[in-house]
Automatic annotation (TrEMBL):
It comes from the Bacteria. The keyword DNA-binding does not apply. Residues 1-23 form the signal peptide. It comes from Acinetobacter kyonggiensis. Residues 32-153 form the DUF2147 domain. InterPro entries: DUF2147. This is Uncharacterized conserved protein, DUF2147 family. Pfam families: DUF2147. Keywords: Signal.
Length: 155
């Protein structure tokens, strides 16, 4: 009987802690699903789900892909470097290592951005709009001036 009570208590504690973690992520405007928009074509190429890791950094994983009209849908990251090469796009880490700027909670810095088409990894920074519905993501080499910016839409 004692083991039964301990099991029930452990379940209640786990459920309570999980709900606190879930509630914290609901209030985090960066966490959730985002529709990427290709800056060159204007088409949405993928959906990315961003989560906050236990170390406080953010990671985005591809959860859906689409092809640009008139092109074949790409399924694997044939141009990706290292251990990401030939991995399926679904589940592929797309952004990682972003840290919230303590001086401006809408800015996220020190991240990495994977260009799954070209296969390169760039330094990254991001900024949330005041409404929290748009994310301006910049990937760059060396200094921020040399790079590309894209805007993602939260849904």
């Amino acid at each position: 009987m004692k083991n039964l009570y301990q099991g029930i208590l452990a379940s209640v504690i786990f459920a309570t802690l999980s709900s606190f973690s879930f509630a914290a992520n609901i209030n985090d405007p960066l966490v959730g699903k985002w529709k990427t928009v290709d800056d060159r074509t204007g088409y949405s190429r993928a959906d990315v789900e961003i989560s906050k890791k236990p170390d406080g950094t953010y990671e985005g994983v591809i959860v859906a892909t689409r092809s640009v009209p008139g092109t074949e849908k790409m399924l694997t990251c044939t141009n990706c470097p290292g251990n990401l090469k030939d991995k399926p796009f679904l589940g592929l880490p797309f952004i990682w290592g972003f840290k919230q700027n303590p001086d401006n909670p809408r800015e996220f810095n020190h991240g990495r951005v994977l260009d799954p088409i070209g296969g390169k990894i760039y330094k990254g920074k991001a900024r949330l709009s005041a409404s929290g519905k748009h994310l301006n993501l910049r990937g760059y080499v060396g200094v921020s001036v040399i790079g590309r910016s894209v805007t993602w839409i939260k849904y």
